[in-house]
Amino acid sequence: MPRSASKRGNGAAINGHAVAGHVKDPQLAREGKMRIEWADRHMPVLRAIRARFKKERPLRGLRIAACLHVTTETANLARTLQAGGAEVYLCGSNPLSTQDDVAAALVAYYGIPTFAIKGEDHKTYYSHIVSCIEARPHVTMDDGCDLVTVLHTKKRNYLRGVLAGTEETSTGVTRLRAMAASKVLRYPVIAINDADTKHLFDNRYGTGQSTIDGVLRSTNMLIAGSTVVVAGYGWCGRGVATRAKGMGATVLVTEIDPVRALEAAMDGFQVVSMEDAAPRGDLFVTLTGNKSVLRREHFARMKDGAIVANSGHFNVEIDIPALERMSSGRRRVREFVDEYRLRAGGRIYLLGEGRLINLAAAEGHPAMVMDMSFANQSLSVEHLKKKARTLKKDVYGVPKEIDQQVARLKLRTMNVAIDVLTPAQDRYMRTWSEGT
User: How many Cα atoms occupy the beta-carbon half-sphere of 77 within 13 Å?
Assistant: First the structure.
């Protein structure tokens, strides 16, 4: 049991054995279990992997510290790793993304030590990360690189036993690549986000739908006829822009990358600077992975009643301290909606405290798309157990064979058939001598 769990916690007993954990309310466990089972029905690829893992136990002996959004889909990933023989310790990767009933169910029904409470403060958030690190993991599983960062700074004495890790999101991959470039990364990490079956689907379709879902749940605004400003036209931005356009919004896109800006323009969106977008937008959504994308000069130009939200991993994309300095007061007008009254006049509404709105106010990505992301996670951990000692301390992509295996499994569950090369076609694709 992690040492912090003995200091404070509210775990459960499974088959007479104490299970560590720190969750909001253990009484929520039954509701959480039903929701986990519902999500599992929509994750057939992960179910197939879990069935094989249960039979083969390829992860036997591994301790995994996972810092992920504690959702129904993540619960099914944890169950899959556990079925493979791993000992899993889970904490939240964002203070507002935890589903408290799911956290309670993981402890009470599945015996997975879980340290996560929706709305936890900064100190509690990091104490939960430490609880997982103190389990002495062999593998880290991160979403945003906070666990890896704590392990490499404040808890370096636990690095010795770590073989490898995985990283779920683009923000975390960016941080890890910076660590690798600075020669401070102490073990190999697979960038799950770089898998085609992750970023092409999870980021675009998952973020696109769930971000709009979070905005609607928190505001009940009408998207049709509104002007929506999407900051960043990566895969996540593409998804949000496309969904907003499909719901009848006028969509403005801001970008710093000329190729992405050109693509957005050719996709039919208006590409403008944030300075020009600021007075026009009704809803602003940041999805860049960078800081201060919306800042003082933009707030000053926004119309009365403008709504600002973030769907990037960290809440630094919106310069909230600047907004606070510009305001004479703040009040909570709806759940996850804070009204800032500007000294110069007008109001700006910040959603979800600037944190991931799709997880703060909604349920995150649909299970059908997380099925692929977490299949990549499971198979990558299996790969790392076999290969970690042969890898350098660097960031690696998901092996192509895993990516394609996940795609094939997903197609099979969708009853979609694809063609196979004939022997002649296969030879043609591997030769240089045949021409016109």
Answer: 31
CA 263, distance to chain mean position in Å, is 25
The reply to whether 354 and 395 lie within a common domain is: no
Select the more confidently predicted residue: 3 or 417: 417
Residues 319, 382, single domain; the answer is no
DSSP 376-391: HHHHHHHHHHHHGGGS
CB 367 within 8 A of CB 42: yes
- Contact present, 330 and 374 (Cβ < 8 Å): no
β partners of residue 395? 189
Alpha carbons within 13 angstroms on the beta-carbon side of residue 283 total: 31
Contact between 115 and 35 under an 8 Å Cβ cutoff? The reply is: no
- Number of domain units in the chain: 2
Which is it for strands 63-68 and 139-142: parallel, antiparallel or unpaired? parallel
- Report the CATH number at residue 389: 3.40.50.1480
Asked if residue 201 lies in contact with residue 372, where contact means CB atoms within 8 angstroms, the answer is yes
By the 8 A CB rule, do 63 and 138 touch?
yes
pLDDT tier at 215 (50, 70, 90 boundaries)?
A: very high
Report how far residue 80's alpha carbon sits from residue 431's, in angstroms, rounded to the nearest whole number: 42
Give the separation between CA 126 and CA 115, rounded to whole angstroms: 10
Tell if the pTM clears 0.90, that is, is over it. Answer: yes
CB 234 within 8 A of CB 255: no
Q: What is the CA radius of gyration of the chain?
A: 22
Give the distance between the most distant pair of CA atoms in the chain.
75
Q: What are phi and psi of 379, to 5 degrees?
A: -70, -30
Return the percentage of the chain with pLDDT > 90, whole number.
94
DSSP per-residue string spanning 61-101: T-EEEEEE--SHHHHHHHHHHHHTT-EEEEEESSTT---HH
Q: By the 8 A CB rule, do 271 and 261 touch?
A: yes
For residue 240, give its domain range: 205-360
The average confidence (pLDDT) of the chain is 95
